[in-house]
Every structure is written in structure tokens, then in C-alpha cells.
Amino acid sequence: MIIKKLEGKERFDAYKLFVYCFHRRVDNIESERQKCEAETCEDWGAFSDDNKLMARIINNHYDFYVDGKPVKTGGIGAVATYPEYRETGAIREIFYEILKEAYRNGEVLSSLYPFNHKFYRKFGYEVVPFINEYKMHPGALKDYHSLPSEEKCEVYRWQPGENIKDFMDIYNQFSPTFNLSAVRTESMMLEHLKIEKEFIDRKFSYVFKHNGKPVSYLIFKDEFSPEAAILKVEECAWTSRIGFNAILNFLSRFTADYGSIVLPLPMGIDLLKIISAPNTYEIEKRTCQHFMVRIMNTVKLFEVLKKPSDCDFTIKITDEIIKENNIALHVMADKVEVLNDKTNDCKFDLEANIRPLGQLAVGCLSIDEALLRSDVKINGKEEMLRRIFINKKLFISESF
What we know:
The protein has 13 helices and 19 strands.
């Protein structure tokens, strides 16, 4: 088996593999050849001894926020293997090469959307419950149908080709306050707003302004259902309470249009704790956990993490794949020291495998939860560790 990055014609072959495995239907697949062969993304393939493409993985490049600071992050996507080559270890061998190169290239985190959590745990990833979806009838928002006059906002529907500055301004205030949100360029924002056929896609985007200043936006799709149409929010963001309430006010207007609204909110913003509703029991809540994260470089991550001024603890880390992460660290408020090899008999304040450590670092796992795992052990300074590894708001903003 040969593992290598794909170029030229190989990228088109990988696209055909993607179409095959992800049940896509393409009228004229040859029309995609030139576009595929000109791609520049980091695309990896596994080839058989007779040089046939067996499997592929793309490592997309992002900067994700962690404690308000952007860090280099890989986004693993397009994982696919032809059926005749499954159970050959092709994906495993690609992963080993990707992870080693990602470490060398300075990635701090890696992330993915799993088809199976157990499969990706083998490579050091762990689950991140990252969003709550709330399903309700628009009538559940009737208390927001009338807002105080001083809080009322102007509503603007965005049309393709119009300026996206308002969306960018809102996103750039909103996203750094959430861990794992992406640093977004204008082209990335346009992907979220993109409409190919307006009244076939049934996708609509709105900006809300208060006294002329943009305070929130809403992107949603109209989904068909035989019983009644569903308003499915794809993304919303806000800069203030007024902006958030403007979104709820707008959604409350659709009692005659939709049988239900599905509203996803970032982890750490619980609608059921803040909403004024006639009957909150009528709102269904579902936690989404189809996202996983992995630490690629423990030293760099601890340098980025927000720490109290008196931070001072030691940690021993185990990583089955990236040998550079099998280290002991002395973590202080202003620096991180790698301890020497003469520490085998030392008693570290915290011992953790790379999987739960990723959860602790991004803020989706508490110390109490971590202690229920077999791969986390606290030997000292528990009170300090509780102040460092706290629950944090999460916003997963990109698909890959």
C-alpha cells in the first residue's frame, strides 16, 4: 500500500470515490474534472500495489478560536474507501501520515464529524457535544411578538450580490467568545449565505439593526414536511440581548407559515434557561454530538489556554499516535515547561490521555466528569485544576 498526497488526475479520481461512497448523483461527472484537478486542498490517498486508488481523506485548514485566540486547526473530511478495499487498514494508514504531518506543520487541534465515534477514538479524537437544537411551534415565542419600543429592530433581507459587511461585523464580535469557532473570511461567509436557486433552495438570510447598527443575523431554510413546513435555522449570531431577542421576535411571526421551528444554539447558551414562553414543556431539546476534537500539540495548546495568575501544576500526557505528546509538563501562568526524562517516578498533579485532555482543554468536560473516566487521574492540586478546566461556550461554525 502506498500513501501520498494527491495531485492532478488523482484528485479527480478521489472526487469520483467521494461521489460513489457518499451516494451523490452527478449528471455529468466529467464536467467536474478540470475543477477537481486544479484543487489545492490537502488531499491524501491510499493506493494498492497495482496503483489503484483505495481510499482518501482531506485535511482542511482552519484557524479555530480557543479562549479568544486563533490556533491552527485541521478539519478532517471526505473520508471514503471503495467497498472492495474496506477492512484493509487504508484509512488507518492515511490517518497516521496526516497526523504526523499536521504536527510538523504546527496544527494545535484537529477536528472532524464522525460517522462512528469508536472508530475515530482509535486516532485520539473524542466527542464534543457542541450544540443544542430546540424544536417548537412558532407560538412558543408569542411573548417575543411585541418588544418594548426602545428594543425594536429594523429587519433587512439579504440578497445575493449585496454587501456582507454586516454579517462579518456581527460574526467577528460573536465568534471569538466561543471555543472552536472558526476565524471566518468573507469567502467563507459567502458559502454560508450562498443561494443557487432561491425558491428551490428556499434559503433566506436576514440582518437585524438597532438604531442603524447591526446587532444580529439569521440564516434559515424552509424544509418541506407533509404535515407542515419546517423553518430550520442554519446559523444565527448576535452582539447583545437586543440582537438575540430580535431573532426570537422575527421567528415568532411565522405562526401561520410553519408547523415548527428548529433553532440550534451554541453549547453554553441554553434556551430553556432564558426564554419566556407560555409553556416551556412544549419545546423539545436535542443535544448534538456529531463532532470530535483531538489535540495535535499539547505544549502549544497549554500556551494558549487562559489560566489564572497563580496557575502552577504538573501533568503527564499519553498519546498512542503522536509520540511528541507523550510528555510531562509544568504549566504556569506565563509559560509551559517540558519536564526532562527523569520524571518516571514523579507524582504528577494530573495524568490524562490525549482524548479527555482535548475535551478538558476546549471546555466541554468538567473535572467531575473527567474523574469518572478511567484515563484521567488527579493526584494533587484539585482545587486549582477545577479553576483551570472549566465549562466554556462552544460554537462549531464550519462544515467539512
